[in-house]
Amino acid sequence: MPKVDVYNIEGKVTESIELKEEIFGITPNEAIVHSVMVNFMANQRQGTASTKTRAEVSGGGRKPWKQKGTGRARQGSTRAPQWIKGGIALGPKPRNYKYKVNKKERQLAVKSVLSSKVLENNLIILDKIPFTEIKTKNMVNALNNLKLEGKLLIILPEKNENVQRSARNIENVKTSLVNTMNVYDLLNYKKLILTIDTVKKIEEVYS
């Protein structure tokens, strides 16, 4: 079982805990992570791009000139794609890019990324985040005490206004909940900050 130190918000080690091997200690499956990542990105696409075909642009009801005898190429409408203000050939139309990925694959991808964070020493465990008020300075001080910089993702077991609103104005810091965390955020943020309660909930959900 992976063993990691637990810190308090003053940056001091308070204890060590063992993490579940099947969640934080597996061999990362890069193929599954890539597959789930592509699915997540596809599901974010709006699919609202649209162009007008020759049937939808205005004008073009009359044949511009007779078929033969003019010396020019034959034309049936001024709204064919080669004409100025003509319709678009093979252009995009609104569509839905969403598709589903197997639940077990999604869970394996999350476990793979969590295990990678442990291997790379990018997983920080806190005993708790005891904020009693909404104050950005409290979060800044805590991160400075832990000597953390770069992109940081704080995952909480449940909604906590004091923590979430204290972090939201800090650049490159994001908060998330166990039931809303996704592979994109786990990969996009270099260091992952969990509390002991978060670890327990993750182990409960993903066991």
For the structure shown, list the relevant keywords.
alpha/beta, 6-stranded mixed β-sheet, 6 strands, 14% strand
Proportion of helical residues: 25-40%
Radius of gyration, CA atoms, in whole angstroms: 27 Å
Assign an overall shape.
elongated
- Fraction in beta strands: 5-15%
Oligomeric form of this entry? single chain
Nutshell version of this structure?
By secondary structure, the protein is of the alpha/beta class. The protein has seven helices and six strands.
Topology:
Blueprint: E1 3-7, E2 13-18, H1 21-24, H2 30-44, H3 103-119, E3 123-126, H4 136-145, E4 152-156, H5 161-167, E5 173-177, H6 183-188, E6 191-195, H7 196-206
Parallel strand pairs: 1-3, 3-6, 4-5, 4-6
Antiparallel strand pairs: 1-2
Helix pairs in contact: 2-3, 4-5
Question: Any overview of this molecule?
Answer:
With 207 residues, the protein is α/β, with parallel strands linked by helices. Helices cover 34% and strands 14% of the residues. It is built from 7 helices and 6 strands. The protein has helices at residues 21-24, 30-44, 103-119, 136-145, 161-167, 183-188, 196-206, and strands at 3-7, 13-18, 123-126, 152-156, 173-177, 191-195. The protein has a 6-stranded mixed beta sheet. It is elongated, with a radius of gyration of 27 Å.
